[in-house]
Write a structure and sequence with these properties.
This protein is mainly alpha-helical. It contains eight helices and three strands; from the N terminus they run αααααααββαβ. α2 runs antiparallel to α5, α3 runs antiparallel to α6 and α4 packs antiparallel against α5. It is elongated. It starts with a helix and ends with a strand.
Length: about 300
């Protein structure tokens, strides 16, 4: 757990520092270089800074062990963070699309090529950060790190779209192609769409976990296969599992022969729980209810 928390903090700090640098660069160059797309991308990076700071604040809480007041642990703190980041990105997308559309109703100034190079630099940086963050999030099943990775993912496509938008505007100006003058404006709207799409994915997942939606059927079937390996289990009456941040809680009802003793039932339940937790390291708890089985 300490290693997991330390890694999450490291990823969050790297994200904060890189996003601060990119935010300043894109906002300044986007503003003075007359690029709405790069400026919008800068606003998105500013949102990333805020998101990373929130993650840093909540990581320690999410990794605290269960206590009397929170018997299922504190894992959902990460989910709440993911939801907050999703809301933030949604608001950013609304602002960016408003600015982009309004730009079509007045004369535009051709953006500077420097804005394109800034966007390309952001693209390369974000590809590296996204891949490394997603790999660590997958290895440690961290919703907080995953939220940071999704932020980087949104910036990857947003930055390349901004670069293309600037390039189209410059080409339109130099070759006097009127509709290409608005390439930067169109790119900013596309950036807004990409930001909205990522926000929707994050909010959907966060709400599913907070509302304790059952995990996917394929994973449940894997659990069933493990439980079915025990010949003492005559029937699986019910199985359900829910994500609780970076770990999973499993509820299980199985039927065993009615003449089994309490100790035999207890020992069997302990074996089932142990095997599930050994094979799936993200399972934090398995609650097993035993029903009596009467053969027909």
């Amino acid at each position: 757990m300490d290693k997991r928390e330390s890694l999450a903090k490291k990823i969050a700090w790297i994200s904060v520092i890189s996003n601060i640098i990119l935010t300043v660069g894109k906002l300044v160059i986007g503003w003075f270089g007359n690029s709405d797309a790069v400026f919008a991308d800068g606003i998105h990076s500013a949102a990333d800074v805020f998101a990373s700071v929130i993650v840093l604040m909540v990581i320690k809480l999410a990794n605290k062990p269960a206590d009397d007041e929170h018997p299922y642990g504190h894992g959902k703190a990460e989910v709440i963070v993911s939801g907050i980041v999703g809301i933030l990105l949604f608001l950013v997308s609304i602002y960016v699309v408003y600015e982009g559309i309004s730009g079509f109703f007045h004369e535009v100034e051709t953006p500077s090529l420097l804005a394109m190079w800034v966007a390309l630099f952001s693209y390369v940086t974000k590809v590296i950060l996204y891949r490394s963050s997603l790999k660590i999030a997958s290895q440690h099943n961290s919703k907080a790190i995953e939220a940071i990775a999704f932020d980087h993912k949104a910036d990857i496509v947003a930055s390349i779209a901004a670069a293309i938008g600037v390039l189209l505007s410059v080409i339109g100006d130099r070759f006097d192609i009127y509709f290409l003058h608005y390439g930067d404006k169109a790119a900013s709207i596309f950036v807004a769409y990409l930001i909205f799409k990522i926000a929707k994915e994050m909010l959907t997942e966060a709400f599913d976990i907070l509302l304790e939606r059952n995990i996917d059927a394929e994973t449940l079937q894997d659990y069933i296969s493990v439980i079915s390996e025990f010949p003492e289990v005559k029937r699986i009456d019910r199985i359900r599992a829910r994500e609780h941040g970076h770990y999973i809680l499993v509820d299980l009802r199985v039927s065993i022969d009615h003449d089994k003793t309490i100790k035999e039932g207890h020992d069997l339940a302990k074996l089932i729980k142990g095997k599930l937790m050994d094979q799936y390291d993200n399972i934090e708890e398995v609650l097993i209810h035993l029903n009596p089985y009467f053969p027909d």
